[in-house]
From TrEMBL:
It holds the Pfam family DUF5131. InterPro entries: DUF5131. The lineage of its organism: Bacteria, Pseudomonadati, Pseudomonadota, Alphaproteobacteria, Rhodospirillales. It comes from the Bacteria. This is DUF5131 family protein. It comes from Magnetospirillum aberrantis SpK.
Length: 333
């Protein structure tokens, strides 16, 4: 059963791997953990024991479930579509054995009509898997049981010229700040050097990133954080990503502002509140803050590069960056 997605850049989510544990500052308010706890409370066996609910947050227990009933979901959809693997965990998690990755990549092999976006915060593990010279052989073998079932409609390209690395699959990593960008670039670069198309999700953007050295990318997405505990992102972080993409021929998608929007250039009487919820500069330094009614702001916040960020919710914030919608996407192959 395909899950339709509200995520701007995909049509379906594919969740044969559910459950995770935090690895990064971006995980602090993991939406998937809260959702998993809610779904278990609604009686969904798939999410049993994965997370607990603590107020308005979810906390992973560390259990990871490989959910077989979802494994063949893309094979059952004939219409070409974009699929995100996986929105309820991390396919690069250590608890996902290579034998299961073989089967996931086998399904992607047999679904040439679809484009898959495999996103992880653990690219070094996927690099270890994908750059192993035997990976293609294992995946080729793993297609055999699926290729003999009634779900196979589009032939089996495994073993034919140019089938591996899979042209319909992009491997992505999340990088929310410079530290994570530096940590995850070598592994992502090694995947790209092996012939895979790669992308970055710079969402939630939590700090500035210098993108020099990422020229191998096929796509870059940036966005601010959403949800009750969302942290604001400085507009310059997204502008830097946008401008770097333009200079390097990398498609750029500005996904969302998230919970916070920029009111820096509004006259004081046009701002949604008299006191900013948060003023941050391009280094992430806090120059002011409050609850929207009372608060403080450093007098020289403008001179110090501050952005006056107001909390108005994701819908109100929209997805225009300097008045422009950025919808760059990689070519479908
Ligand atoms: S890697 Fe993803 S799913 Fe796992 S804790 Fe972090 S944000 Fe949540």
């Amino acid at each position: 059963m395909a899950n339709n997605s509200k995520i701007e850049w995909t049509r379906h989510t594919w969740t044969p791997v559910v459950g995770c544990d935090p690895i990064s500052p971006a995980c602090a308010f993991c939406y998937a953990a809260l959702m998993a706890a809610r779904l278990e409370a609604m009686g969904q066996e798939k999410y049993a024991g994965l997370a607990t609910r603590q107020g308005n947050r979810g906390k992973w227990t560390g259990k990871v479930t490989l959910w077989e009933p979802e494994l063949l979901a893309p094979l059952k959809v004939r219409k070409p579509a974009a699929w995100f693997l996986t929105s309820m965990g991390d396919v690069g998690h250590e608890a996902v054995p290579f034998s299961f990755l073989d089967r996931l990549f086998a399904v992607m092999t047999l679904c040439q009509q679809h484009t898959f976006y495999v996103l992880t915060k653990r690219p070094e593990r996927l690099a270890g898997y994908l750059t192993d010279f035997q990976a293609g052989i294992r995946v080729c073998r793993a297609t055999i049981p699926f290729a003999t079932t009634e779900v196979l409609r589009f032939g089996n390209p495994a073993g034919t010229d140019g089938w591996w690395p899979l042209p319909n699959v992009l491997i992505g990593c999340t990088t929310e700040d410079q530290t994570r960008a530096d940590e995850r670039r070598p592994a992502t670069a090694s995947i790209a050097a092996d012939g895979w198309r790669t992308f970055v999700s710079y969402e939630p953007a939590l700090g500035p990133v210098d993108w020099a050295g990422w020229e191998f990318l096929s796509w870059l997405i940036s966005g601010g954080e959403s949800g009750q505990h969302a942290r604001p992102s400085h507009p310059d972080w997204h502008r830097t990503a946008r401008d770097w993409c333009a200079a390097n021929g990398v498609p750029y998608l500005f996904k969302q502002w998230g919970e916070w929007h920029d009111e820096t250039d509004r006259a004081p009487h046009e701002r949604s509140r008299r006191v900013a919820d948060k003023v941050i500069n391009a280094s992430g330094e806090i120059l002011g803050g409050g609850d929207g009614h009372t608060g403080y702001v450093e007098l020289d916040w403008r001179e110090r590069g501050g952005a006056w960020m107001a909390r108005g919710g994701k819908k109100a914030a929209g997805r225009l960056l300097d008045g422009v919608e950025h919808n760059g996407k990689p070519e479908v192959r």
